[in-house]
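REQUEST
  id: r-88c1
  op: predict_structure
  target: PH domain-containing protein
  payload:
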Amino acid sequence: MSALLKNVTNCIWHAFDSLQSGDLVHKSKLKVLTANIGTLLDLYGVEKGLDHFRSSSELTFDEFRHYLQHEVFSSLPKTVTLPVVREYEKKISEVCWFVCRKSLLKRDKPVFGDESVFKLFRIFCLLADLVLDADETDRYVVVLQPSEAGIVAEQLVHCLGLRWDAADWEALGSSIGHFRWAAFLAVLEAKYCCDQQLHSEALVEAVDEIYDVFIEDIIKKGYLYKRGYLLPTMREYWCVLQPCALTYYKSSSQKEQCGRIAIDEYCSVEAAAGEGKLQRFQLITPERTFEFGTQDHKSRLQWVSALRQAAAVSGGAEGYQRRARAGRRGAGARREREARETRARLQHEVRARLAAEAQAQELAELSQKDNKKLEELKNAQAELERLLQEETQAKRDEEIVRALQARVLAEEWERREELERLQEEQNRMLEEERLKRKQFELLQAEKETQFREAQRRLKELEQEKQRLDAELKAAQEKISKTEHNAQALHVQLRDHPIFRNGERARRALSFVPTTKSSSDTLIDVKAVRHLKVLDDEEKL
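RESPONSE
  id: r-88c1
  status: 200
  body:
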């Protein structure tokens, strides 16, 4: 039953979106949702396969939808009647609504009740599309096209007895673009249902009305007179027309069903001759013929048209509104394709017209250029004639100038020879000056060398002088020290007993060195010893 999964995918996505953190939902949460869906479909234990599905503990929506398709919905019979499919859709929608209602009911100023919001939610999921998010390419969102949202809003406005402004809705739809659930509900509440004069019961009835149209596929409902099968009398019933059946009740509360007439493509509707005030028509089915009546001709035409429409769309496994939506999408696609083709043709025509205008403009520009060139040629001819006259005069003047130039050239040649002679003389003088300058430079270099040598010699002499002065100073210091030592020795020798005699004193003093060399400053120890020996001999 891939069709059933396709029909409830938008509801399941909202439940999945309310459970997810990021882009993934934990398997434990998905097991609860899968178990509830399986219970509604009389399939038990389908959630157990999630433990072995994929190795990760979290799943994306694509993975969860793949699991539902192959493990849950594939277990249903391939052929299921439309009422059973609708019942499944309703139950699954209720389960998904129970999961996501807390997040979807959040708004600042609520107008609709929770039950009405749930019905609008089902209408939204019926008409919306599951697409990839433009901001996050790996994430899905459920959006409603502005045209589909306009159909719902228009039906709601008409049910409330208000005037519908199509231009205003087109401006609003173009500004918003694709409607998500929050934007869709906010627009319906804030723009069309915020009037304080509207009673809450009127809002509930309006939502119920569009719910019957879009979800229950009710084409038309109202009071009809029906001829009885046993008693041929016309009794009034509340009739509800759907693509597959015409159901009639005792009252508009639809609590007591009196009968149900199956409608298929083999049924037909024909007008019948009326008696009295009733406008009659017949519904012919393969089993029997039913006769109905209305109070006026207009109502009869509406019911006849609605019954024929129901018979025409009675076939197929999908509901009437789903097929109508698919038809609108196909028509929209065709209109869009035709619009693209029309725009392409218009663009081609515009390009062709622009090309023709450009070609005409080019031809006009070429004509202007030709005229301009002709005028330029005339001006050029007059200019050439004038130049020819000037050239003739110039030739005569040139001959005169040439004669003058020849004379001037001869004079110039003489001056040139004189200048060449002067130049040669100047070059010779320059060469002599260059040689003198070279000799002077050599002499100057030699002088500089001698000067540097003299400086070096002077520096050496100064260093030698400083060294000699130092030696002289040291020698003078040694001499003064030696003289001081000699005087001290002389005093000691003079005072010594052995030298009291003048002769010995003079002899001893003769041994005192008087030279200025450093080696003569010391006393000859042998001489002193010799004097001591002489002194001892005298004593003996």
